[in-house]
Write a structure and sequence with these properties.
The chain is built from ten helices and five strands, in the order H-E-E-H-H-E-E-E-H-H-H-H-H-H-H. The chain is α+β, with helices and mostly antiparallel strands. It folds into two domains: 118 residues, PAS domain (Beta-Lactamase, 2-Layer Sandwich); 107 residues, Homeodomain-like (Arc Repressor Mutant, subunit A, Orthogonal Bundle), CATH 1.10.10. The protein has a five-stranded antiparallel beta sheet with strand order 2-1-5-4-3. Strand 3 and strand 4 form a beta hairpin. The longest helix is centred in the last third of the chain and has 19 residues. The radius of gyration is 20 Å and the shape is globular. About 4% of the residues have low confidence.
Length: 246
């Protein structure tokens, strides 16, 4: 008599995954529902937010855990994932309200039920400054990424970044895109906008000063690129988050 197949219970599978991720010290792991509320988190994520137990994060959103300008980026990604998209190797600032943001690489995927309906999201993020063994495919770019983080306000041609990575320009561009799904210069533009977000929220610098400090040719270029990435002008972004006490 043929044995009848017995599927795994989703609850048991989730519990097993959470337990597995608890032992990865350099990786934060979480599961959220369709309203972007945390359902599960591993120990590393709890430590990052100075929380003692999973119960302390369940039901919370990123707006209760992180500065508003960071939570907005996380929320935008989650909304895209809930539409069926996936986030692969997103370079972004990650940090709690009382934790200085760190440059991290994030991955997010939709969670589906047995009928294929999206019921939530799951993700991981790891610190780009972690030990080389935890960086995987990104490690060969460590020097280039550090140069971008330290020198984003000036022009950084691919030949300079390729030299730091120990390969030809063509090989560097190909491998970088394979690892991060964007070109080196696209990555640099995203980095400049992320740094501009901080300046707009936490300083009173003029828009022109922020543009120059973050590596844009002029305020017009800054306004165009910022709106393309963030969906609003620098002026509207500052008014929104400073008005919200971000």
């Amino acid at each position: 008599m043929k044995a009848r197949f017995q599927p795994f219970r989703l609850e048991a599978l989730v519990a097993g995954l959470v337990s597995l991720f608890d032992h990865l010290e350099q990786v934060q792991f979480w599961i959220k529902d369709r309203r972007n509320r945390y359902l599960h988190a591993n120990r590393t994520l709890l430590i990052n937010y100075a929380l003692e137990e999973v119960a302390h994060i369940v039901g919370k959103t990123d707006y209760e855990l992180s500065p508003a300008f960071l939570a907005d980026q996380f929320w935008f990604d989650d909304e895209q994932v809930l539409k069926g998209h996936e986030v692969h190797n997103r370079i972004e600032l990650v940090g709690g309200t009382n934790v200085p943001p760190q440059w991290s690489v994030t991955n997010k995927v939709p969670l589906r039920d047995a009928r294929g309906r999206i019921i939530g999201t799951a993700g991981t993020t790891r610190d780009l400054g972690a030990d080389a063994r935890g960086l995987g495919a990104t490690y060969s770019f460590a020097a280039a990424l550090n140069r971008m983080r330290e020198g984003y306000s000036r022009a950084l041609p691919n030949r300079e970044l390729a030299r730091l990575s120990g390969c030809s320009v063509r090989a560097f561009e190909r491998k970088f895109r394979q690892s991060f799904h964007v070109t080196p210069q696209h990555y640099l533009r995203k980095l400049r906008v992320r740094m501009a977000c901080r300046a707009l929220v936490f300083t009173t610098q003029s828009f022109a000063a922020v543009a120059v400090e973050c590596g844009f040719a002029d305020q017009s270029h800054f306004n165009h690129e910022f709106r393309r990435q963030m969906g609003r002008t620098p002026r509207a972004y500052r008014a929104h988050y400073r008005g919200a006490g971000g």
